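Residues pack. Consider this:
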Amino acid sequence: LDLDTARQELEEFIPHVKNISDSSIKKMAGRDLLRFKEFKRQGIAVKFGRFTQKENNQIQKNVEEFLSLTGIDSAEKLLFTSRYPEDKDTIHRLKSEHHFCEKISEGIPRPWRLIYYRARKMFDPNNYKGRYTKEEKEKLKQYQALHGNDWKKISELMSRSNLSVAMKFSEIKSAINYGPWTKEETQKLMDAVKEVMRRRLKAEAAASLSALEESNTDLWIDREKLYQQLPWTEIETKVGSRYWRQCKQKWNSILTSKMSKGQQLYRGTNGLQAKINLIKRLYETKAEDSSEVNWEELSDAIGDVPRAYVQAKFYRLKVSSVPLWQRKTFSEIIDYLYQKKLPELEEKL
């Protein structure tokens, strides 16, 4: 397909296709378009967002079958070939001969690139390695001084994932302040978020440019845009005294307070009732994985609060109430909360 036709055909499946580069469109036309059309024929929509447990299991199956087919002896060699320079040529040849792109994405209605990134995250032995030691933190600072923000290089030197080293450096380089937020810090945070929102709105709505440039008053923004992913490391830099995770948590608390008009939603009787409502509503969804839950709709189980607030409350609830929750599936956690915790909360109420 020529580029314009490919972009036009992909637009049916990917609404934000106009923001994707020409080179990525060419790759998607080869790797994804036929798959998307086949899924459409089966009545299956292309998905984005968090992967479900069912999709993770399918990726696991696809990778294991490809290893069995080719004789490549580990998922790490398959997905992180650059770590094995002596086997690189052989692995690339096998991937090409046995149609790696098609095989790894089999049965999953998502863009190939996202499936590939998910597989890399699942099979990277350098992920989930626990807390950083003091020695590792010192090494990280030294490597960053030598290599700048080349997180791929640093991740190889430290045997940690790219994301892990980038986020940990962001945390330790900041002048971390663990005390209460001052008015000045809070204002800096709100100004930084507003600046990011303004820039995003300008990019999304060129027709509204003049109106945005003429006015520096408060922006009117669709509610859902307030919860979407923001560039927290950039916001961290603008705030100056807090690292990115603190900024994110504070923004969520500001949103919650404004949306709920300052009500004490999780205190006393209200708190008990909110937990009861949340458990019941989660049980009613019959979801197999947290990504299948519509957290936006669920937020009214607690009050007029952001989705992130509800997710945070659910996290605290499972950690404090469900023994060995890390070893349980999402549906097992919900069943436990419904069968064991709910009667206890109702009696207390």
Q: What stands out?
A: DSSP finds 20 helices and no strands in the chain. The radius of gyration is 23 Å. The domain at 134-173 is CATH 1.10.10 (Arc Repressor Mutant, subunit A). Residues 275 and 313 are 8 Å apart (CA to CA).
